[in-house]
TrEMBL record:
It comes from the Bacteria. Gene3D superfamilies: 3.90.1150.30. The keyword DNA-binding applies. Keywords: DNA-binding. This is MmcQ/YjbR family DNA-binding protein. It comes from Chitinophaga barathri. It holds the Pfam family YjbR. One of its GO terms (molecular function) is DNA binding.
């Protein structure tokens, strides 16, 4: 996975915007103002993704490249490394799940805006 491919995927999700609220290094992807992915654009070593709490623990136990979310709520966030241990397809699937979890938590009006 390279940075451009990952950015293109994130920005292809409906209503996604990007920004640098934590400095020039940390790229954040948002949907309706709520973040679903964070990564260091300089190092491009890992990404923080929102995750169902039960699934978060399961993924950490199953994959060496998945750890509790760095500087995040460890119950709801995982850090996934870009070291090649996680297939690109799986990384993109988890990114979509992160996005979907955030969308599910939005008010109904905002969810409807994303649909139409």
């Amino acid at each position: 996975m390279n940075l451009d491919k990952y950015m293109q995927y994130c920005l292809s999700l409906p209503g996604t915007e990007e920004g640098f609220p934590f400095g020039e290094q940390t790229l954040v992807f948002y949907v309706k103002g709520k973040l679903f992915a964070l990564l260091d654009v300089d190092a491009f070593e890992s990404v923080n993704l929102k995750c169902d709490p039960d699934e978060a623990v399961e993924l950490r136990e199953r994959y060496e490249g998945v750890t509790p979310g760095y500087h995040m709520n460890k119950k709801h966030w995982n850090t996934v490394t870009f070291d090649g241990s996680i297939p690109d397809k799986l990384l993109l699937e988890w990114t979509r799940k992160s996005y979907d979890l955030v969308v599910a938590g939005l008010p109904k009006k905002l969810r409807e805006e994303l649909k139409g």
